[in-house]
Amino acid sequence: MSTIIDRRKNGGGKSSPNRKRFIGRIREQIKKAIPKIMDKGSVKDFSKKGTVPIPVKGINEPRLRNDPKIGKRDRIIPGNDKYYPGDTHPKPEEGGGGQGEGGGDDSPISEDEFVVEISMEEFMDVFFEDLELPNMTKRSTQPSEEEFKLQFAGQTRTGVPPRLNVVKTFKNSIGRNIGIQAFIESEIKELEKKCEDEDCPEKIKLMLAELEELRGLEIPFIDDIDLRYDHYKLEPQPITSAVVFCIMDVSGSMGFEEKDIAKRFFVLLYYFLSRQYKHTDIVFIRHHHDAKEVNQKEFFESRENGGTVVSPALELMRKIIDERYPPDQWNIYGCQASDGDNFAHDYNNSYQVLTQKIMPITQYFAYIQIGSGMNNTYFGNNLWNEYKKVAEMFPNFQVKAIKQVNQIEAVFREFFKKGGPEK
Question: Residue 54's beta-bridge partner residues?
């Protein structure tokens, strides 16, 4: 496999539009490579800024060619010291075909595979381009200090040429021309009548001169008074605010692999929210037998664990909503990752908190059950069974299972694809 690394600076050897066109051409191949990329490396490696290698086949650069049937072509071949115009080239001997010994073999023809290194920014743009937070609505009516939109505010007589309203200008011109023409014709008729009734030669002469002037009067098709320019002004827009609760089980039953899958999923979610939405808060909650709100660093790096009780994390989510995120002003989302284990007495508590306190005020809630051990066979007492009941009651509640790292990307896209996930 060949590796070609382009080290040119953007400003010197290549342009941003060309780069975007190139990314567009290999977009489908990038998407096909995403599961393999997700399957490699750790969470820290994935979250680092830098480049992402993408294996690509068949990059055919467009080029212009002369039609061999049209015109006459002359070529100058560098290093030619043997042939002159009119000479014929001998046919190459069979069996050759390349440098080195032995020539080619009888293997089927295939395309070379190349590795294209794209930036993490470009990779994320392709990854998230067809994803969204479901059911988001404009909650707050308070104008934003950051978001403004140009709103049409009528027309003015002055402005810049790009904003000239051609239709309105022509209408004004036609109206003015019709009005002036009607006035001139009325004046001509009145002068003609006066000429007929007048006996004084001197006055008739003056009237005829005036008539001649009126008949030769040229009316400009477009005058400055006709011009109309569209006028716009910046209007503050209502805020589309959202808060996403990331709830991760860090109890003892969650092994290293289960926690790694959960962290990978939440890293994707963090990048998705940070890149796609401006007014989005992310609340991180870790829980074992107890739950607490933590910062981003502690959420991904803390090694604290313990027994498993799920309902305290859901109760904490509702408490934070009551204190900081009024449902009439915020789009509320939840995303929970667990291996499905829970103390027996807490299954019903978790069900009651979800159905009575959280889902009625939540736009969307996603639950991921992780792992392939006994806790994830979906039999007996298990969060999967309880949450399936919640999903039957609320269409905006989704449950999915992830057993291996290479399933993360597909589940993530299913949760957040545009138009909403399929039940």
Answer: 116
**Are 421 and 367 within 8 A, CB to CB?**
no
Instruction: Fill in the amino acid letter for 231.
Output: H
Helix ranges (H only) for 109-200 are 120-128, 166-197
* Residue 34 domain boundaries: 1-60+112-129
Q: Please check whether residues 257 and 406 belong to one and the same domain.
A: yes
Measured distance CA(412)–CA(330) in Å, rounded: 23
The answer to whether residues 26 and 56 touch, using CB atoms and an 8 Å cutoff, is yes
In the chain, the number of structural domains is: 3
**Residue 359 corresponds to which tokens in the numbers above?**
């889902």
Burial of 365 (0-12, 13-18, 19+ CB in 10 A): buried
pTM recorded for the entire structure: 0.61
Per-residue pLDDT at 4:
58
**Phi, psi (deg, nearest 5) at residue 37:** -65, -40
Residue matched to tokens 């995120």: 325
> Which of 204, 231, 258 delimits the end of a domain?
231
| Judgement on whether residues 361 and 401 belong to the same structural domain of the protein | yes
| Same-domain pairing of 220 and 265 | no
Q: Are residues 227 and 243 in the same domain?
A: no
Helix/strand/coil for 331: strand
Q: Are 112 and 55 spatial neighbours (Cβ–Cβ below 8 Å)? A: no
Q: Alpha-carbon Rg of the chain, whole angstroms?
A: 37
Write the DSSP symbol of residue 417: B
Mark whether 298 and 346 lie in a shared domain: yes
| Mean pLDDT, rounded, for 258-265 | 90
Q: Are residues 256 and 379 in the same domain?
A: yes
Residue 243: per-residue pLDDT:
92
150 vs 237: CA distance, rounded Å: 10
CB 160, CB 229: distance < 8 Å = yes
Interval 37-65 mean pLDDT: 62
What's the mean pLDDT when you consider all of the chain? 78
How is the beta sheet containing 331-338 ordered, strand by strand? 291-294, 280-287, 242-249, 331-338, 364-370, 397-402
> Other CB atoms closer than 10 Å to residue 182's CB: what's the count?
10
